[in-house]
Amino acid sequence: MLDLHTRIATLKRPALLARAARFGVDDYRRDVHLRRILGRENLPRSGPALMQLLDVESDMDAQRKDKAASYRPARHVEVLIAILGEAHLLRATALHSVK
Fold first, then answer.
1. Could you tell me which residues come within 8 angstroms of residue 86 by beta carbon, excluding any fewer than 6 positions away?
2. pTM, whole model, 2 decimals?
3. Burial (0-12, 13-18, 19+ Cβ within 10 Å), 25
4. pLDDT in tens, 53-88
5. What is the C-alpha separation between 97 and 6, in angstroms, rounded?
6. What CA–CA distance (Å, rounded) separates 42 from 20?
7. Spatial separation of the C-alpha atoms in residues 89 and 79, rounded to whole Å
8. How far is the C-alpha of 93 from the C-alpha of 55, rounded, in Å?
9. What CA–CA distance (Å, rounded) separates 93 from 44?
10. φ, ψ of residue 3 in degrees (nearest 5)
11. pLDDT in tens, 84-98
12. From CA 35, how far away is CA 43, in angstroms rounded?
């Protein structure tokens, strides 16, 4: 099984989705966005949150590829933003624990 950083680095998504997510990551607010995406009041730490987000995103990408009527590009971008935001938080946490 790939580690989280490798899974994120190997995500291949259409350029428009990836670009939109990169533009939105600066406005990512964990307590608002992650709570809405996961539908949970108590939020998991960044590692477990990333695993859940990657599973959600994988399902959304399958819907996109299948051209499912339920697929919503805006929601997909929101999940990609959360993945990038949580990955940033995880790296920052790892750097602080090393110091």
1. 30, 34, 46, 49, 50, 53
2. 0.89
3. middle
4. 999 999 999 999 999 999 999 999 999 999 999 999
5. 20
6. 28
7. 15
8. 22
9. 14
10. -70, 165
11. 999 999 888 766 565
12. 7
Residue type, 51: M
The DSSP code for 41 is: S
Nearest Cα residue to 83 out of 94, 13, 1: 13
In 3D space, the residue among 19, 14, 93, 2 whose CA is nearest the CA of residue 60 turns out to be 14
CA separation for the pair 92, 88 (Å, rounded):
6
Torsion on CA atoms 79, 84, 85, 87, rounded to nearest 10? 120
Copy the structure tokens of residue 62.
């399958």
